[in-house]
Write a structure and sequence with these properties.
This protein is an alpha+beta fold. The chain has a domain of 60 residues: Ubiquitin-like (UB roll).
């Protein structure tokens, strides 16, 4: 590709939503000379494969990435494993044990004895 070709085409990222109110999901990248043609290309490429109610086309250069320093700030200094759902795996077993010990209606009625 010539220097002029690289300047002519820009990279775009395509996102879509399948239903109203559904989150946008990343689909693919494409090269286009401008936003209008990028949107038409995204519609043509995407709509052939599956339905969509909305499509976003974003120039890649407009997407801001985190710096390495910002990424490092995401690491937690303290241990807060309790925030992770994997830490609650024991609850299913505990709940099953609890349910097995619950008295059912027949057992409770059997305690009544005779009222004759």
């Amino acid at each position: 590709m010539s220097a002029n070709g690289r300047d002519f085409y820009q990279e775009y990222e395509v996102f879509s939503s399948k239903k109203n109110g559904a989150p946008m999901q990343y689909q693919f990248s494409l090269l286009a000379p401008n936003e209008e043609i990028a949107l038409v290309m995204a519609q043509e490429n995407f709509m052939r494969r599956e339905p969509a109610v909305d499509i976003w086309v974003v120039k890649r250069s407009h997407i801001r990435k985190m710096t390495q320093e910002e990424k490092e700030s995401l690491n937690r200094l303290d241990n807060k494993d309790y925030r992770q759902t994997s830490g609650y795996g024991y609850l299913k077993k505990k709940w099953r044990h609890y349910e097995q010990n619950i008295l059912d209606e027949k057992e409770i009625l059997s305690w009544g004895g005779d009222e004759s």
